């Protein structure tokens, strides 16, 4: 074997991305063809890779791009390309003038199994749970959704609530001619899943709610109330920090795996959504 085959010449992007991935995944021996998941990657490490690429290479990408390209060679080609290929598995749907999306993993028309439809949290999209996807995809087909207000979907129309999101979910099933699903609602998505289960119990084989609570501890509610106050005043930095403090433990004496990365991701998301949330408050005020 020639030396060129043993040690292929890497482009600058491939070299830089490989170094980032080796640092994040702690695998010095990885090469540009290794699948990130085969090396132990999870959602936090994929976000870290995305953040490092943006910081060190100055290239704007989404962390779902890291998920769908899966190795250094493919991800580098995407970063260098002038034409960004959209996700091939994303299917767009429109209901009552609102655009949203879903993606399917596996054969949802296999009569031997019941597909799982997964509604994710408010800070997530349909590419946000690669580890869960990896664990569940061999058990049955999966349907992930970007309902209005999340991911690539349009915003939720004014004065619409979880009943509207449940209706959007039902329209996906009707479009796919699916009568029965196993329904999983995670965090914020649990409210939509619960509403769907109440309205159409005959279409739910089993339902699971994850990270969903009926009440909040008083000190957490106080932080959320404080965050809302800052938002109404236009104090976005204070709003962001109080929101994060209500959902992420910031005590330096307690070890939290991936806390810094999670904090950075949440801060970026809160900051990007601040104007939308401010508009929602203004609409609510005008309706009163």
TrEMBL record:
The keyword Phosphoprotein applies. The keyword Phosphoprotein applies. One of its GO terms (molecular function) is phosphopantetheine binding. Residues 8-83 form the Carrier domain. InterPro entries: AB_hydrolase (IPR050471), AB_hydrolase_1 (IPR000073), AB_hydrolase_fold (IPR029058), ACP-like_sf (IPR036736), PKS_PP-bd (IPR020806), PP-bd_ACP (IPR009081). Keywords: Phosphopantetheine, Phosphoprotein. It comes from the Bacteria. PANTHER family: AB HYDROLASE-1 DOMAIN-CONTAINING PROTEIN, HYDROLASE, ALPHA/BETA FOLD FAMILY PROTEIN. This is Hybrid non-ribosomal peptide-polyketide synthetase. It comes from Xenorhabdus innexi.
């Amino acid at each position: 074997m020639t030396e060129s085959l043993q040690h292929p010449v890497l482009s600058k992007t491939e070299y830089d991305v490989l170094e980032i991935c080796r640092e994040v995944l702690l695998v010095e021996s990885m090469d540009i063809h290794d699948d990130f998941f085969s090396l132990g990657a999870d959602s936090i490490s994929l976000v870290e890779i995305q953040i490092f690429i943006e910081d060190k290479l100055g290239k704007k990408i989404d962390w779902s791009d890291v998920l769908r390209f899966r190795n250094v060679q493919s991800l580098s080609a995407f970063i260098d390309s002038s034409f960004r290929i959209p996700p091939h598995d994303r299917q767009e749907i429109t209901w009552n003038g609102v655009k949203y999306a879903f993606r399917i993993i596996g054969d949802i028309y296999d009569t031997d199994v019941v597909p799982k439809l997964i509604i994710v949290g408010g800070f997530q999209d349909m590419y946000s749970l690669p580890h869960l996807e990896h664990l569940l995809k061999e058990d049955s087909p999966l349907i992930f959704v970007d309902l209005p207000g999340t991911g690539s979907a349009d915003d939720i129309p004014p004065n619409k609530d979880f009943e509207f999101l449940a209706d959007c979910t039902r329209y996906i099933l009707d479009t796919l001619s699916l009568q029965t699903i196993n329904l999983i609602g995670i965090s914020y998505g649990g409210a939509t899943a619960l509403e769907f289960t109440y309205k159409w119990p005959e279409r739910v084989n089993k339902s699971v709610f994850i990270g969903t609570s009926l009440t909040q501890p008083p000190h957490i509610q106080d932080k959320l109330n404080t965050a809302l106050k800052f938002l109404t005043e236009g104090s976005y930095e204070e709003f962001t920090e109080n929101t994060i403090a209500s959902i992420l433990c910031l005590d330096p004496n307690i070890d939290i795996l991936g806390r810094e990365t999670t904090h950075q991701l949440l801060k970026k998301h809160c900051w990007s959504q601040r104007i939308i949330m401010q508009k929602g408050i203004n609409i609510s005020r005008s309706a009163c």
